[in-house]
Amino acid sequence: MTILNLNDTEKVNAYQSFVREDPRGQVTQDPLWGELKANWGHVYVYHETDGQIDAVLTVLTVEAVPGKLLGYAGRGPIGDVTNIALIKSLLEEALAALPENVFLIRLDPEVAYSDILNDAYQAAGFVTRNRDIKNMHGNIQPRKNVVLYYDGRGEGAVPITNDTELMTHFKRDYRNQIRRAAKDGVTVTSGDTQDDVRAFFDTYVMMAAAQNITHRPIDYFLHMQKLWQNTGLFKVFLAHFEGQVIASGIGFSYGDEIWYMYAGSNRQYAKHYGPYAVQWEMLKWGLSLGKVEYDFGGVGDFVPEDGLYKFKHGFAYHDPHAEYIGELDWVVDEMGYQEYLKQFD
């Protein structure tokens, strides 16, 4: 195990290439994510076999209880998470480099839940937080996601190789709504400029207000744009109608998937189905890149009563539900850990 030296350009590039190109690569394990989270500390650990990186652990730290740091590996580590000895060695290396007041390192790899894997991590000394957590917001990242699989999974699904097959993968009313948006004159552009981000942000704020939820500041997204511009890994999609941006989405292309991370919409134009037009173009982007998965993000539960599920499921109703292992907590300071957990009660 080795701590990444951020002054070693060659090794940083190798680390980033692994995170971006490995099938299970994740944007939140890219050192650029550490730069985006400017107020967090960071440590980057990697493992090599025959001189090639084959596992990484990006840990960001923030004060989560007074005087004590949470170490969080968002959607990480990237590597063989069934090799628990390897994962523990990455953790040990990270802890040796982190401040002494870290009370917890939390992993949440994007790997399917199984009793076998859950039991194995518990036996190795981890606290696992998955099926016992009933609230979607009881975990940092949602544990249940809607995913469209381009390679054809689930009953009635076939591999998707072109736009026609992609369209027929959706529910019939979703196909009609996408066509209705086009008939009404809705067009969708994509880009990675500051203007794209500012247009997205306007609809993002509208959506947050309509749903009575908090939102990130504009500077966060402008910093994101600056970091990922011209990488081809980041795109902002904007649905336009009569000179207005009426819906938007931000996606990242890492590993074998597109991650639909942020969205916005102006409900005044709901009858023109801008969000459906945005999804259509984002899904075609994933298809054009030869991706295996399109991750619509989290839902509270896989039931029609869940509003997030209701919208997302119509695009991926053939596809099996994605239920991840959840959080794998390596507790360093039990008192700090118990204090931290109180906020999730």
Automatic annotation (TrEMBL):
Keywords for this entry? Acyltransferase, Cell shape, Cell wall biogenesis/degradation, Ligase, Peptidoglycan synthesis, Transferase
Q: Name one GO biological process term.
A: peptidoglycan biosynthetic process
Gene3D superfamilies noted in UniProt:
3.40.630.30
Q: Which PANTHER family match?
A: LIPID II:GLYCINE GLYCYLTRANSFERASE
Q: Which InterPro entries match?
A: Acyl_CoA_acyltransferase, FEMABX, PG_Glycine_Bridge_Synth
Which Pfam family would be a valid example here? FemAB
State the family named in the UniProt similarity comment for this chain.
Answer: Belongs to the FemABX family.
Protein name stated in the entry = tRNA-dependent lipid II--L-alanine ligase
Q: Which GO terms describe its molecular function?
A: aminoacyltransferase activity; ligase activity
